[in-house]
Write a sequence for this structure.
């Protein structure tokens, strides 16, 4: 008698399905999708390929799923925010529901989504510069202020890409970014008199705002996913506070070094 | 103000790119952001609203548009929502709070800190309220039947 018969009944099919659902959920979660979207997508995949009554539990940093005699737990630590991946997985799950993918093709497509290339560095730098310049204009800066803010935006994104993202924790990274922006704006103001400091700094720190964590945190709370919502809001608050600390520290240093009236 | 709305549209598009939104949705994200800023600054300067009230109404407008676009394009609402709300983010509040704190003007720091907090709560309230509207309404508005 084979040992295999003694094991709980588990067809490879169901395991494979749950694995696919887990992976789809992981990609969504890694990219800061809302909790209900992760659960819904996973449920959709399970339902379509026929896993009986799956139980899914999703937190901001973990996915738990059981169904069809299998249980999977997955830790999802990293955060990148790539909305294109969220949109692609969302589309995939809709297509699966319409029966356009076999499980094999779906897995392949999911791999493709995972490997989707990010935006090139130059584009991100350009985008950050543009964002900083535009927000500076909205805060009442004139066109020279906007130009200066754009330049600081370039420096900011360069710091994020090559120092903060690969080497620093989120908190220290944001403090450094806040300080870095303030430092360069102060330098520009010192070299070119007549610039408006405040719109420049406000415009340039806006790209640091944790928009996705904040909005999705609120939506998680509204959906009753209190733990995940609270974690995300805490994350967003920490970023806000850290940026403010960075700005404040550089102001204090400036004050100490150059003395006199504060700006 | 026209210039500022244009800046809001362009800035929002740039912000969408930073968050890796798919390129085909840039424009609609920009429209959402521009609309949010138009409502916000319009109410603030011409209708005598306070900043908090203007933020709330602008958030309602931005979320409304985002939901329509999301249904029409069948993609996650986050893409438009995050882009649309970014002009309303209390970046100025953070800056002035930090500034007044380190310059030891505590009364001003407190009031600008609370202003930022009130703006954040207005955004929260706007998002939550607008997501209470049934999805069917947006499907009708976007001219799409339930599949």
């Amino acid at each position: 008698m084979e040992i295999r018969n003694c094991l709980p009944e588990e067809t490879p099919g169901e395991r494979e399905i749950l694995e696919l659902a887990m992976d789809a959920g992981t990609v969504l979660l890694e990219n800061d999708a809302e909790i209900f979207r992760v659960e819904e997508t996973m449920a959709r995949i399970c339902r379509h390929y026929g896993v009986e009554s799956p139980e899914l539990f999703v937190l901001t940093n973990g996915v738990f799923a059981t169904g069809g005699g299998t249980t999977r737990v997955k830790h999802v630590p990293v955060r990148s925010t790539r909305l294109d991946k969220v949109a692609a997985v969302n589309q995939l799950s809709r297509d699966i529901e319409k029966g356009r993918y076999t499980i094999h093709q779906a897995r392949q497509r999911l791999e493709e989504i995972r490997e989707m290339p990010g935006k090139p560095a130059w584009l991100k730098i350009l985008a950050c510069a543009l964002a900083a310049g535009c927000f500076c204009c909205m805060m009442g800066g004139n066109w020279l202020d906007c130009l200066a803010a754009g330049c600081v935006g370039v420096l900011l994104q360069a710091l994020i890409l090559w120092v903060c993202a690969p080497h620093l924790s989120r908190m220290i990274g944001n403090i450094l970014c806040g300080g870095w922006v303030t430092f360069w704006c102060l330098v520009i103001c010192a070299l070119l008199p007549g610039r408006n400091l405040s719109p420049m700094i406000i415009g340039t720190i806006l790209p640091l705002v944790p928009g996705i964590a904040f909005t999705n945190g609120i939506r998680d709370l509204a959906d009753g996913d209190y733990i995940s919502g609270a974690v995300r809001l805490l994350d967003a608050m920490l970023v806000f506070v850290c940026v403010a600390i960075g700005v404040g520290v550089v102001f204090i240093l400036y004050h100490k070094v150059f003395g006199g009236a504060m700006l | 103000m026209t210039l500022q709305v244009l800046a809001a549209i362009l800035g929002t598009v740039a912000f969408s790119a930073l968050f890796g939104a798919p390129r085909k949705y840039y424009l609609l994200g920009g429209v959402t952001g521009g609309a949010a800023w138009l409502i916000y600054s319009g109410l603030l300067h011409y209708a005598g609203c306070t900043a908090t009230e203007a933020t709330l109404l602008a958030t309602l407008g931005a979320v409304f548009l985002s939901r329509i676009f999301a249904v029409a394009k069948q993609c996650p609402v986050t893409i438009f929502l995050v882009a649309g709300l970014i002009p309303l983010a209390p970046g100025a509040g953070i800056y002035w709070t930090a500034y007044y704190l380190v310059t030891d003007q505590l009364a001003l720091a407190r009031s600008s800190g609370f202003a930022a907090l009130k703006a954040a709560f207005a955004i929260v309230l706007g998002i939550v309220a607008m997501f209470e509207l049934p999805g069917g309404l947006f499907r009708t508005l976007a001219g799409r039947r339930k599949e």
Notes: The mean pLDDT of chain B is 89. The helical segments of chain B are 2-18, 26-46, 51-73, 78-85, 91-102, 106-132, 135-141.
